[in-house]
Amino acid sequence: MSHASQPSAGTPPPASPGSHRGPDRNTDWAVGGVIFAGILLLCNGVLAILQGIAAIGEDNVYGRVGDYVYRINLTGWGWIHLIIGICLVITGYGILKSMSWARYAGIFFASISLIAQFLFLPYLPVWALIMIAIDVFIIWALSVYHSDGRRDLA
């Protein structure tokens, strides 16, 4: 009988596909997704800041909407986008620096951004849909990453 096919006493048995990987649960996709989510949060934040400044500075930057349930004047939208953008930039920086609070804050602020973009749909529908898709990816990427794994972002 050959003992070569049996694992030794010190090594764990090989994992079957789809099984739990043990303490190192972060795949390369999860780690890469978190880094990409951090970069997207930074970019999303800068764009939201610019979008907010444009709306605060000029009331005729975006098209007017007729009767819409969630109607807010453009100066109000400008301040909303500016505040969300600042929060997204800070959170994106925190994620890229592997700060413990940043992952949960990223999920929260990406959710707030998603809601704000949904409410902003009548003003810039294509842009809002793209930003909603990006926010969904950010929420997913930050949700699948396990900070207790041995792989670090750096």
From TrEMBL:
UniProt keywords, alphabetically: Membrane, Transmembrane, Transmembrane helix
Annotated region (Disordered), positions in chain: 1-23
Keyword set includes Transmembrane: yes
Tagged with keyword Transmembrane: yes
Transmembrane regions listed in the UniProt entry: 29-56, 76-96, 101-120, 126-145
Domain DUF7144: 34-146
InterPro entries, per the entry: DUF7144
Identification of the protein by name: DUF7144 domain-containing protein
Organism: Streptomyces yaizuensis
